[in-house]
Amino acid sequence: MRTPNLLGSLLFPLIVTIILAAAPWSYALNQRSSKPSSSVTPSSQLKYHNGRIIAGPAPIHVYIIWYGEFSPIHKTTITAFFSSFNQSVNPIIKRHPTVSTWWSTTQSYKNVKGKSVPSRVRLFGEVSDPKCSLGKNLKRADIATLVKKTIAKKAFPVDKTAMYLVLTASDVRVEQFCLNSCGFHNSVLVSPRRRVVYAHVGDPGTQCPGYCAWPYAAPAHGPPSQVLVSPNGVGIDGMVMNVATILAGTATNPFNTGYFQGNALAPLEAVTACSGIFGKGAYPGYPGKLLMDRRSKASYNVNGVKGHKFLLPAMWDLLTKTCTVTG
Predict the structure, then answer these.
(1) φ and ψ of 280, to 5 deg
(2) By C-alpha distance, which of 185, 241, 228, 236 is closest to 10?
(3) Helix, strand, coil % in the chain, rounded to nearest 5
(4) pTM of the model
(5) Predicted confidence (pLDDT) per residue in 51-60, tens digit
(6) Closest to 200 (Cα-Cα) out of 245, 241, 171, 165
(7) Beta-carbon count within 10 A of 299 CB
């Protein structure tokens, strides 16, 4: 995943050469010099490089490591986001996008055998490390170590259809987070012959809201833009946006041999190809037309379970060759 250089982009630089790690991808939001309405032109498309994707029909399993102290609302919102991938559509809001309809765009991403990305995503396990066993200043390699230790303790199984997601609290510093990245994904050997995919996303609420939670915070750089009201809190909603981006990139390009466009060391992926787009009519500094909650005035673009509302980035649709939120 790679590094954008425009306002609000969610790009993922491959760290294997850029950061000297063993095949990681990170989302950078050099969002704030200007915000592109799209990084992919209508005449271009993401290319399939004939490598592995996470393919169905079994759902993608997500295992969360909560690293640091998280509030109950923080955890509830993140877990509700994952529950929303499997929600049934309420007839009252059936004309509005949902998390599951957003994810349906991934069904056009298929491997060499014709199998698509799973239509379902499920939260399969959670563990907490509130005392920060590895400290509060982490290297990227520490994220892999944390995942390996958790699996070694048998808190999580070795699961080839999984993403092991490390979420760090607002007071935990992770190498490169907020400097040129809002999260990353990578893979690590957990046995001589077993490799798993893992990812990291931090809480940008106090560390870098203008860098990793736009448009819910003023951009860190570039022209000013209207700050929107967040439905769940700036830090929480920033994490949701970045988790969604990481998840789509992991599913469609887990080992940097799947779907991407451009240089393999700094490619555009399923969501980062649509940097800065959250609704129709997006342009630099404007996320696009969004829904608004009448009571709270919070802006969002998809509905979740139990009345939750989220803002998710647009995804590149291989069939229509457009950036879409609605699937």
Answers:
(1) -65, 145
(2) 241
(3) 25, 25, 50
(4) 0.87
(5) 999 998 999 9
(6) 165
(7) 24
CA 287, distance to chain mean position in Å, is: 17
Exposed e or buried b per residue across 133-157, where buried means at least 16 C-beta atoms within 10 angstroms of its C-beta = eeeeebebebbbebbbebbeeeebe
Q: Residue 263 phi/psi, 5° resolution? A: -65, 135
Which pLDDT belongs to residue 1?
43
Question: Which tokens is 278 given?
Answer: 């959250």
Residue with tokens 């990578």: 186
DSSP class per residue in 204-256: -TTT-HHHHSTTSS--SSSS--PPPBPSS-HHHHHHHHHHHHHHHHHHH-TTS
Helices 234-252, 72-83: inter-axial angle, 10-degree rounding? 40
What is the dihedral angle through the alpha carbons of 40, 45, 50, 53, rounded to the nearest 10 degrees? 60
Q: What is the CA radius of gyration of the chain?
A: 18
Q: Cα separation of 81 and 284, whole Å? A: 27
Instruction: Tell me the two tokens of residue 182.
Output: 């809002």
Question: In angstroms, rounded to a whole number, what is the distance separating the alpha carbons of residues 74 and 55?
Answer: 30
pLDDT in tens, 234-264: 999 999 999 999 999 999 999 989 999 887 7
249 touches 181 (CB < 8 A): no
Residues 6+ apart with CB under 8 A from 295: none
Cβ 167 vs Cβ 66: under 8 Å: yes
Decide: residue 239, CB within 10 A, 0-12 exposed, 13-18 middle, 19+ buried.
Answer: buried
Contact yes or no for 13/185 (Cβ under 8 A): no
Each domain of the chain, given as residue ranges in start order, spans 15-324
Distance (Å, whole) CA 223 – CA 219: 8
